[in-house]
Amino acid sequence: MIQEALPGAAELQAGTGATVYDTAALKQLDTAHHLHPFTDHALLRQRGGARVMVRGDGIYLWDSDGRKIIDGMSGLWCVNVGYGRTGIADAVYAQMQALPFYNSFFNTTNVPAVLLAEQLAQLAPPKFGHVFFTSSGSEANDTVVRMVRRYWDLMEQPQRQVIISRRNAYHGSTMAAASLGGMAGMHAQGGLPIPGIVHIGQPSYAEAGQGMSEAEFGIKAAGWLEEQILELGAGQVAAFIGEPVQGAGGVIIPPPTYWPEIQRICDKYGILLVSDEVICGFGRLGRWFGCELMGFQPDLIAFAKGVTSGYVPLGGVLVSARVAEVLVERGGDFNHGFTYSGHPVACAAALENIRILREEKLVEKVAAETGPHLKAAFAGLALHPLVGQAETCALVAALDLVRVKRGSVHANERFAAKDAVGMICRGHMFDNGVIMRAVGDRMIVAPPLVITRQQIDEMAERIWACLDLTLNDLKARGLVG
Ligand SMILES: *Cc1c(COP(=O)(O)O)cnc(C)c1O
């Protein structure tokens, strides 16, 4: 059974060159042995197991039954240069042959780590000259917590311990990163958050902006930070962390007034400002880093995902002069690091990924061409009777599914949470060749940055057709009139 299920034992289909997989056997083995992240396994088994992905090219994926799917989510917000890049595979192979691993502890380094650190210092906003490498976004944010507290110790203000974050933020899944995150479902498991982390409201105009203009709401939502600082006492507060645009929380795009006001408040109280760019970095928002679009200058930047387009795990923290000078000049040992910090193979993948982003001008293309085109396509989808509103920011976009549409985000009538309409819609999308993510009843895309205007149209047409299927399904279930 195992032999038959493995691709090595697969036959080649005559003529097509496509590999044939024993999907049923793979699903059965997966169900028997594989615990998936963020998954209800009883429900997964009931649904017949997980879909098996076997191949990718550009914005498309193929599953083990040969079905072609548009990947509207770039894997998990990460495959920025698209699938099938042999250049990254070649760079990884060459580095594995030369030096597959050596550590960066104990006064040693390696060539790809050196070159990547220099490359990142060039690409990052001014004042960022240093980088600390990790293997994931979660590890990057754990590093942020330790680095921020170390900084204030060295500044002889050790009482500055508290890090302020936001409800419904996502910063990862390790103990510290999940604590920084504001996901109630995560905090409910495993005794989180850890001490010294507090959360304020998120800048969601739909959730809390009724009766205000968006600009007024942005100032108000940033004001929650100042209220929290005053409640704690400014001398206790170490840092504020946020995603420029919240990703996993449902593509929450703050009003343009929000981040500059956050910056003003952090400056006023001398608090470190941390931008979690794990999704927004490396071109997603049409800039190398999302803070550049949102108009703020952080002291630390956490990154991962798009730095390698997910081909090999890599993350890290970019460190500005304010923090680096203290850590380097007076810090002594920073007792923190990972076996795979500065992994040569991961850094080689990142170097080639960044070379592709630059050569193909993908970041510029998002800003000038595909971002605006996605905005127009989603404005079209907002006309669908099931869609209350569409929002986009460069190459992230979201649609709100509503029961009754009344022409304004605060007047629309929503579905009951228990009806899980977003998941029903996601099912129709998945079954009909387009991957969208559902966060509640908000349907999200973040396609690879290589997507063309024509492919955006193809994706939007397919989404419209699946919205029709969803609407009919909801009518049959009696959930809409
Ligand atoms: C995905 C994500 C993380 C966590 O990264 P992992 O590589 O999954 O640990 C952190 N922050 C943001 C904003 C993310 O989207």
TrEMBL record:
Q: Which domain of life is it from?
A: Bacteria
Q: Which cofactor does it need?
A: pyridoxal 5'-phosphate
What are the alphabetically sorted keywords of the record?
Aminotransferase, Pyridoxal phosphate, Transferase
Q: Does the keyword tRNA processing apply?
A: no
Give start-end ranges for the coiled-coil region(s): none
The answer, when asked if NAD is one of the entry's keywords, is no
The record, for InterPro entries, names: Aminotrans_3, Aminotrans_3_PPA_site, PyrdxlP-dep_Trfase, PyrdxlP-dep_Trfase_major, PyrdxlP-dep_Trfase_small
Stored Pfam families: Aminotran_3
Q: Which GO terms describe its molecular function?
A: transaminase activity
Q: Which CDD domains match?
A: OAT_like
Family statement drawn from the similarity comment of this UniProt entry:
Belongs to the class-III pyridoxal-phosphate-dependent aminotransferase family.
Q: In its UniProt entry, what is this protein called? A: Aspartate aminotransferase family protein
